[in-house]
Write a structure and sequence with these properties.
Elements (H helix, E strand, L loop, with lengths): L2 E5 L10 H7 L3 E5 L18 E3 L16 H13 L4 E4 L1 H9 L3 E3 L4 E9 L12 E8 L2 E3 L5 E5 L5 E5 L4 E4 L7 H10 L7 H30 L5
């Protein structure tokens, strides 16, 4: 069975709806929580099947409130890219992937926004990426993918919503498997919550079913692209 190592940056944000899709395909996953002082970052040799880097709530990567383990995670991700290992970055994880792949991150305040992502390439995620899908953003700072990255989807402001660096590395600006309860917990643990939280939660509740529906083809394409299909 495949074993994916998942780096978690805050207690509130985990794989969410993605867990069921991996379990349903016989793909195992193991969480690493460096922020808790337990389950430190996995060694590169353990990442044969892949690495998922999750979001970070109020943590960022552009100098305002950087993730404490940022440098170590960028180096770990760079090693995965050099070895051709599958990497998926979500939110802050996409910023880490951008830095490791030769891109940058841009300073931006902590926001909670619900937008729509629009596909820019019909063959994205093996052709399974929906033409449009809900994009839930809870993050500080923004990823700036390297010039050679392929942009697979953009948000309403024209920013990369999903991009690919190499054959098996994908950066998601928002969490494709987000749950309302995850955001509620992120808000409760935040030192300085983003603005318009109640309006954002109402909007998220309204599109939660659409997020679940969009995740079905997204995970089909993601699992195929990453080579996680069980034999």
């Amino acid at each position: 069975m495949k074993l994916i190592h998942v780096v978690q940056h805050t207690a509130a944000e985990y794989l969410g709806l993605i867990e069921d899709h991996l379990e349903g395909r016989g793909v195992r996953f193991r969480y690493h929580r460096p922020f808790a002082g337990r389950a430190p970052l996995p060694p590169p040799a353990a990442l044969e099947d892949g690495l998922i880097l999750l979001g970070g709530g109020g943590w960022g990567s552009a100098g305002t409130r950087d993730l404490p383990s940022l440098a170590a995670e960028v180096e770990l991700t760079r090693t995965c890219l050099e070895r051709g290992r599958p990497v998926v970055g979500i939110g802050l994880g996409a910023q880490i992937l951008a830095l490791a792949a030769g891109g940058r991150s841009q300073r931006a305040p902590l926001v909670f926004e619900i937008e729509t992502a629009t596909r820019t390439n019909e063959s994205a995620l093996e052709g399974y990426l929906p033409a449009s899908y809900p994009l839930a953003l809870y993050q500080r700072d923004l990823p700036l993918p390297p010039a050679q990255a392929e942009i697979l989807a953009r948000d309403a402001k024209g920013r990369p919503a999903l991009w690919q660096a190499g054959e098996r590395a994908l950066g998601f600006a928002g969490h494709p498997g987000i749950k309302v309860a995850m955001v509620e917990d992120l808000v409760m643990e935040a030192r300085d919550p983003p603005e318009n939280v109640e309006a954002g939660l109402a909007r998220l509740r309204a599109v939660q079913r659409s997020i679940e529906d969009a995740l079905v083809p997204i995970m089909t394409g993601l699992v195929a692209r990453m080579g996680w299909m069980a034999p």
